[in-house]
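Reading a protein record of the kind used here takes only a little practice. The record below shows the convention in full.

——
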Amino acid sequence: MHSRLQIEERFRLARTVLITVWAVIALAIVFYTVHTAGRNAEGDILAEAGETLSVQSETLSGVLDKYRLMAPLLARQSSVASLFILNAEDNPQSIAAKGMAGALTGMSAASDVAFFFPDGALLGHANGPFVESRTGLEPLISAASQGRLGRAMLALGPEQRAYAFSSGVRRNGKLVGIVVVYVDFFRIEAAWALSNRPIYVTEEDDTIILANVPRWRMREADEILQDRGDRVGVPSDGEVRSYLDMSRRLPVLGWTLHVLADPAPIMSARASAGAIATLACLLVGLVALILMRRYETTILQARSDKATALRLERVVRDRTRALSESNQSLSREVETRRDAETKLRAAQAELIQAAKLAALGQMSAAISHEFNQPLAAIRSYADNGQKFIDLGRAEVTRDNLGRINGLVDRMAELSRTLLSFARKPGQATGAVHLGTVIEEALLLARPRARKAGVEIRLSGEIDTMTVSGGRVRLGQVFVNLVNNAVDAIGERPGGVVEIVAKRGENLAIVEVSDNGPGIPEQALDHIFDPFFTTKATGEGIGIGLSIVDNIVRDFGGKVSAHNGENGGAVFRVELLPADAKAMADV
């Protein structure tokens, strides 16, 4: 039992240590709070600016997309083609052309609509300075003459800018005229003017072509904006204000859309968070000192109270027992979950094996044809061989026997592939040759595709790539994908399934595409869900693609699906590459 002076001396030392530790921790907390608040505020600003960027990007693209098809549609109108009946000098249709251009301009809200002969001579237009000045006309006429949609950004000055689309007018396959639609940016910049953030668009040469700040238009960005690392400086009223720069590339137009966000809220958030954290730390320190003083008083008053010590001892013992019981319960729960995980993996393996056998059942009719054809040929060669022996023609008989051996080898290879595909695969992974895996998969899937009239094409680096995986399970992935593509094509004539292999950044990529009807947009997010299917009732239970997804994930890869640009579905399999070591039969 310590004396009162000893207890007071120890608490005095403890208070000194507490104040030192509190000062260090408080400083760390304030710094962290200020940093976190600034980061969160910056994130909010960037998110809000990003939302503005997305909205304005869609607005700009939407306005131009509205007029993108106008030129081709007008060029296909017989009333427009009838305007180009004589040469530019004595064409009586020039008045009609001007009237039509005025009507189209009024109805579509385009800046101008103009009709040109292939040599660039003007037939007629509504109004606007770009036609008279012939600004940017040559590339528009050149593109339209080549059967392409012409497009160009035109500018006569900061307040006279437009975007033009052109298309060729043809009669009996011959180019007779050019339709050019001019679109101004007044409505876009008027909408941007409502935003309190600077918004502008730059071309490839960094020229600002659109902006809600009038004095920026048609000037080099470097003349106005100062690069400050992750921020830009904008001179305003004799001082340079710093902004966060959010940008988005518009690849079709070759432009970049920028939104500048004011970072002032970041400093405000940091100051507020720093003040609150400082006050909180002071309060916690004061409370800690008060509690320590009370604890000191309690120790001094209770140093002779043995009953209190015994009670505390019992509390500690009880809590230790409770913790021990909790630990045992937690251990039992962990063991139960491990057992459940083991059973789940076993069930998943059984499901994969069942899906493989189901796939073999679906392909059985086509595969039996692959066996029947060689058997019939063998019988024919054998019968002929007997007759040639009777005739004493040994050379012809030997040739027939050689052909029989070739057919037997072909049937044996197909049989080996079927047995390999049907057996339960191991769970180990290793280096497997992609070309071998796809060749074995097509050996099983091609008969069914051939029966359905579907052509399978291979391209890319299939024969030179080695990936990390299991040969049997990876083969099941491509069997399922090819069968799925054949099912999607159905009875459509000219069906094609294309398998393309290519190398990505630290990835081996295989794309399986078809020219079928594609995947409904509402189904793309659920295409790999178990038991989800777009097939008719009775044609599938929806586990094939789910199994594909699980197998590829087991190999550390990823599978995704989207619709191709020209129709049909595209399944993209990303696998980890492996060195061409010993090809393990896994």
